[in-house]
Design brief:
By secondary structure, the chain is an alpha+beta fold. It is 22% helix and 37% strand. The protein has one domain: Hypothetical Protein Pfu-838710-001 (Beta Barrel), CATH 2.40.320.
Length: 249
């Protein structure tokens, strides 16, 4: 990739824990063209010589998938709870993401190297303080694994994450979407973005189902997904020619 590098330490200025998010979904074949168009305006995160970082993420939900259904049903002020392992740097965090009714995403987290399969006092107290859910009702629900390229704008407070090699694992069911790319533009406020302008130039339309909701739809045949049908159909169109089973319910 023909980008100037940026280190993890330099990334501290663009953590963007309170931000707006704009997502795009396209194919791996289009990714090289996108990167060439934005290479002069962004730096790329480089960790120990690597420009793609491996992520392993476990999402938690209730037995009846309350957080998934809140997203599916269009509820505002909704939560996602996950543990994310940054494989290359051997670190991990328990994270709460809150999407408020003004369209902003607020993320809070505590350092936790090992992925919790049950809750202890520290993690339980964190969940009680930051969510309306009792830790007792939250269970490991879905693994989402992928590799990420992170771009940082040279001109404003902006990050772009580009996720590839997506893998969803749930109850022995595995779905690999190796030809799919999910890009997310993260801004602290509405401001000009070269990446957004290039997406428009390439006629790649904004819109994506969240990775958690996508994974549930792909791996749980009986999960409600009526309101995601249009997005799932768009996903199938993007991946035309790939084998992708999305059960209806």
């Amino acid at each position: 990739m023909h980008f100037e590098p940026i280190s993890l330490k330099e990334m501290d200025a663009v953590k963007l824990m309170d931000r707006t998010d704009t997502k795009f979904t396209f194919t791996e074949n289009e990714l090289e063209k996108v990167l060439l168009m934005v290479k002069d305006d962004y730096k790329v995160l480089e960790v120990e010589g690597k420009r793609q970082s491996a992520y392993k993420t476990l999402y938690y939900d209730t037995d009846n998938l309350k957080m998934y259904l809140n997203h599916h049903n269009g509820h505002l002020n909704r939560y996602k709870i996950r543990h994310r392992t940054y494989v290359d740097s051997d670190t991990g965090y328990l994270e709460v993401k809150f999407k408020n009714n003004k369209g902003r995403t607020i993320k809070e987290r505590i350092k936790k190297k090992l992925t919790p399969m049950t809750w202890e006092k520290e993690t339980g107290d964190f969940l009680l303080a930051k969510t309306p859910y009792s830790p007792d009702v939250l269970k490991p629900t879905l693994w989402v694994n992928y590799k990420r390229i992170t771009l940082v704008s040279k001109n404003n407070t902006e990050r772009v994450t580009i996720d590839v090699d997506l893998e969803f694992i749930n109850d022995g069911v595995t779905q690999n979407l190796n030809s799919l790319v999910i890009a997310e533009v993260k801004l602290d406020k509405k401001s000009p973005s070269v990446f957004l302008s290039k997406m428009k130039e390439l006629h790649i339309r904004e819109g994506s189902i969240s990775k958690y909701c996508m994974g549930i739809a792909l791996t749980k045949p009986f999960a409600k997904k009526n309101n995601f049908k249009e997005k799932l159909q768009s996903l199938k169109n993007i991946l035309y020619g790939s084998r992708l089973n999305i059960a209806n319910s």
